[in-house]
Write a structure and sequence with these properties.
Elements (H helix, E strand, L loop, with lengths): L25 H12 L17
Length: 54
């Protein structure tokens, strides 16, 4: 294993715990999952062509 310091939790900034990595707790992992379910996070998609471009 590496001796590098753990990265902070992306939700609250506390040190990440190995059991919940990259999060610090189950709560922060659930918050992140809820954000995906509510579509807070989105991946970019190419713009759809307009009628003028077709």
């Amino acid at each position: 294993m590496s001796d590098a310091p753990a990265k902070p939790c992306p939700i609250c900034g506390k040190p990440a715990q190995p059991a919940f990595r990259p999060f610090c707790s189950r709560r922060c992992a659930d918050v992140d999952l809820g954000r995906w379910f509510n579509e807070t996070y989105r991946t970019p998609a190419p713009p759809e062509p307009t009628e003028d471009e077709e």
